[in-house]
Every structure is written in structure tokens, then in C-alpha cells.
Design brief:
Helix content: 40-55%
Distance between the termini: 20 Å
Radius of gyration: 25 Å
Low-confidence stretches: 1-18, 102-109, 113-123, 261-276, 389-397
Number of strands: 13
Largest sheet: 10 strands, mixed
Strand content: 5-15%
Length: 513
Amino acid sequence: MQHLLILVLIPSFLFAQVKSPEQISTTIYNNIICAIGNNNPRAPEFVFQENSNGKVAYIKNKKIYLEKKVFESLAVLGEYQDDGIAHILAHELAHHYKGHAWMKRAGYSYSSSNIGHVLKDRGASIEQRLLDETQADRFAGFYSHMAGYNSISIADTVLDLIYSSYGLDSLIDGYPSLSERKSIIDERKDKLLEFTNVFDAANLALLAHNYKNASACYNYILDNQFTSCEIYNNLGLGQLLQAMDLSKAQVEYNYYYPLTITDRSRASTEITRGDVFFDIDFVVDLIHSSIENFELSSNLDDDYLPARLNKVIAELYLFQIGEGESLNLEMEIRDVTKYPSMNIYQNNLLGVYYHIQGKNFAAKKYFKKGEEFNDTYATNNLSLIKSHNDKTRSDSVFTPLIIDKIDVSTVPFLYSPPIFSSRKIPGVKLKIYQLENSLVYNYGKGNIIQKTITPGFTTNKGLSSTTNVAELVVILGEPDLLVQTFSTVFYLYLKSNSIYEIETDTIKSVITY
């Protein structure tokens, strides 16, 4: 059965319509806030200042200020300017979220010629400031990465540019020196890279149908205090999808649900393939656990709608398998889909709700209304209940996809040494290898995912970065599943364990597992 899912990246705004320095900086700030996804405490207001008398960036009265001169100073970074801005803003946000009271009381931050004297008056020890600066840089690098910025690699360059542009002394009294701050960055780079690699590995594992490894990676990140509503949402989503996969043979209709996924997703584990023993209690427990994670996600950010939508879908699925109540379900569906970004899903979910109850006339009415609003889920569900043949698919055998002329499923240890290795994730021995045109993620126990990283890749099936969608479908047929982002669409072929990321009608990357 083919599904169409929405993939909401963290976050993904197009700068094409944003031109002024203030608009660009505000967008970067909002992207990082969305990536952090934590409303406890509430995010500070962002203020872009034309002139702040030499204060680079600072926190005061629950606001974070950035001077226009910073934006201009980092222009020499070219395409990496946004990454530099992201590093500074994320650094400031770290002081806010980690409760660094001395920084808030000082009303100064990133660098200032007289900050040392202010801090001395506030009584903060240099040891504490070094500790907090370390934590702030650690925070800044990871959450910038989650927001889509590569700030880690240029953090020390950003420091050099700021100190040079503002004429700051490298030895500011009472404050970590420039060399100390750069040492902090160097010392934390490996740790930062660890978490960003684990984060990417988690995302790929979700996309490649491996809940177990994805969950282990996400939990490792959470255990190291990188809490995020997106990560809790993904954990819940993995549990819900696993429950759906385990019970799909037991339900009469496998409806198309508009599951909103943050940072890759849609999966089915190894144990769900083929005939498996159906344990209704286990499935129900999974769904209840997913609901708990969706609630944790929502508690971090009341305005984070994907988790709220997923929670309603989880409750609707419980009702579908006869383990939930219909009381208040319709009201919950209408409540979460009243928002503009979610409104398109209302008719489809109401159609599912009524069809589960055998009210076919009302269900078709809502599905048709959704179809009129170009809701693919409603269209697919309308076809599903008309044909009732979606459960059957061809069992034809696919030739394994091979990238870089290496079948990673048969020779997983041919390439060495890894560019990254970690044994700290419970149940996962993660190693990442780099080949000519791809990265290979080895999770241990034969779980391997390979993803292309350059446009020069070729595969044994004649697919490359110049292959368009029509050619892809001619070669492989229609995909089993579509995962949609703001700018790309993933075509998933489950039987061949291959995924194709499409951008502007051509293949951007290929994933095999």
C-alpha cells in the first residue's frame, strides 16, 4: 500500500523572499528556536539593532539583541554567513536556556570591551564563566546543526572576525581570552561532531525503517540534555508506526493518515516483515507510549502542532483497532486542524473517523471534500474504500541497489578506518565510513545504511543525479511510499531497500539499507 507522508524539516524556510539583514537574522533565529523546541523557559524576543554601541550580541530583559555590524562583519564568510550568524544566536540562546544568571544580569554577552569589569561586579568566577562558555558553545554547535546550519566548522573563524571587526583585546580582563574561547571550541568539536553524527544517524535510521537504532540514537541525545520537542515527536512517531505495521494485517482498512514527521521518518522494523505473531497488548502499549512522547513534545512547546496532530492520529488508530473511545475524538480532530497549517487534514481525518464507525456516506462526503482541497490523503482513502485492493502488492524480486560499486550489505568492513565511531549508544555500535561519493552508517549487527553525498554518484541500475522522476518510475515502477519535505520528496522502494531524494524533478541523493 502506498502512503504519502509529510516530512517537516527542522526548520526549513526559504531565504529567496528574505532580503534585508534583519529579516535574514530573524529567520535564522526562528529556525534555531524551532529546532530547540523548548518553551520552558519561554524563548526570548529577538531584536535586531542598527547600533548597540559595540555590543556584539547580548541578553537583557528577556530579549536577545544582535547588532547589524555583526551581520556585516560576517559577510566575508560568503555562503557560510548564515552559519556564522546561527552560531552567535545559538550561543546566546544557550545562556538563556541553561540559566546562566551571571550573563543575564550582566546584560552583555558574546564579546564586549568592558564585559570583564561588569562581570567582576556581578561576582561570577572565571571558572564558572569558562564552564558556561563551554556549555554555550556545545549547545550552539548542536542546535545550529539541528536547524540546518554548519556552525561547528567555522566557530573559531567567527570569533576571529568578531574580535577583529570590533577591535577587541584578545585578553579581556575577567573573561575567557580569545585563545581560551578557541580552545573551548577545539576541545568540544569532537563532542559536537559526535552528537551531530548521532542525530544524522537517527534520522537516516527512521527513514530506512529501523525504529530500534533510531530510538537508541535519539534517546542518547536526550540523555545528554539536548532536549527537543522534535526528538520526542520522532520517538513517539516511531512507536506509533511500529504499532501500525504490526497490526496492519489485522485491520480491514489501512487508512492513509497525515502523520507529520520532523526530520526524516516512516518506518517498519525487521520484526514486522513477513508473518509475525500479533500481540494486541504490545501494540496498545506502543501506542500509549507514543502518545506519552507526543505529550512530552507538546509540553516543551505548546505551539508545536505536529506532535498534537500525531497524538490525535494515535488516539484515532486506537479507536480503529477497537482499543480506544470515540468520545471527544471528533472535537479533538477539529481542534488540532483548525490552524491554517493543519486545516487541510481535517476532512480526511473526519472521513476516517466516520468510516471506522461504518458511516460510509458521511465518510465519503468528507473524503470528497478533502479531495476538492487537493488533500492527497483524502484522495487515496477515497480510492482505498472504493477498490479495497490496496493490501495486495507485487512480490517481484528487486536487484539490490549498489552505490560506489560496493554492495555494503555483503562487505561491510571493506572500507576503513571510519571517520566517526561511537560505542556509547546503548545497543548501537555506530561507525561512519566515507567512500568516494557516499557515507556508510554501520549500526552494528548487520544494520547498514548508505547515502550519497556528491552529485557524481552512479548506481548499478543506471541511476544518477541527472535521472528525473519519470525515468526513475520507468526503471523501478511506482514507489511504495512517498515522504515529502518543503523542497524535496523521498521515493521509498521497500522491497529493494532503496530511497531516492528528489529535488526539482531530479535525483538529489540515493539511500540504500
